[in-house]
Design goal:
Length: 195
């Protein structure tokens, strides 16, 4: 699969490092950091536009606020967009869901909400298992795009959890905001989902 990684920070590096069997490109706004991550991943450096045009899937590992400016100018027709973003803030309910905004910017692309519920340190685990059980990764999007995302979840060593269409992505964004809010107040948010 041709995967374009947008961003050069923690999420880009952690997830990209699990996908090196694929054909990877890295795009970022800082030339040095982009070249460094690309070298680490054995990836090619590409402009946002070239990477978008050629990719089967794009990981959007930049702040959600950057996407409004970045996405509208790109040719992403037929591309799967992996939206791992969370809105900054804590327990406040997010405003317009990011996944909805993205889908509006690039109507020809297929947005999948994915990878937003776990901290970057979890994505650095190889594989991410807890008490002997693999991490479950909920995916919201159309079924064909979710199947693409599911392959990449399996590459991470986690279990894909198809969780409905993109209309359910706001639930994932709200869940993250709620958990991050608890965590920032010192609570062990992970314990609330243990079974
Ligand atoms: N960290 C987590 O635990 C975690 C977990 C789940 C989801 N997420 C989400 O994943 C996304 C990336 O998070 P991260 O932790 O990887 O952040 P990060 O380490 O701070 O990296 C952010 C990346 O986005 C780039 N960027 C920032 N503003 C930009 C702009 N206006 N235009 C283009 N690129 C821009 C940064 O470039 P520069 O280096 O030039 O600043 C950097 O490459 C965020 O949406 C976040 O909400 C994070």
């Amino acid at each position: 699969m041709r995967i374009a990684i947008f961003g050069t920070g923690g999420m880009a590096a952690a997830l990209g490092s699990r996908w090196t069997r694929h054909d990877l490109t890295v795009s970022g706004r800082d030339r040095g950091r982009t070249a460094k991550l690309a070298a680490e991943l054995g990836a090619e450096v590409k402009s946002w536009a070239d990477a978008a045009r050629e990719a089967d899937a794009v990981l959007l590992a930049v702040p959600s606020s950057a996407l409004d400016e970045l996405l509208p100018s790109l040719n992403l027709s037929g591309t799967v967009l992996l939206d791992c973003t969370n809105t900054p803030g804590d327990a406040e309910p997010p405003g317009t869901p990011v996944a909805t905004r993205i889908a509006g910017h690039v109507p020809g692309a297929s947005v999948v909400k994915a990878f937003n519920l776990a901290h970057v340190d979890v994505w650095r685990m190889a594989p991410p298992t807890f008490e002997g059980r693999p991490l479950g990764v909920p995916l919201c999007g159309d079924p064909a795009a979710v199947e693409v995302a599911a392959e990449l979840v399996r590459d991470v060593g986690a279990t894909p959890l198809p969780a409905g269409g993109l209309d359910r992505a706001p639930l994932l964004e709200a869940t993250a905001a709620f958990a991050i809010g608890l965590w920032k107040r010192g609570a062990d948010a992970r314990t609330m989902l243990m079974s």
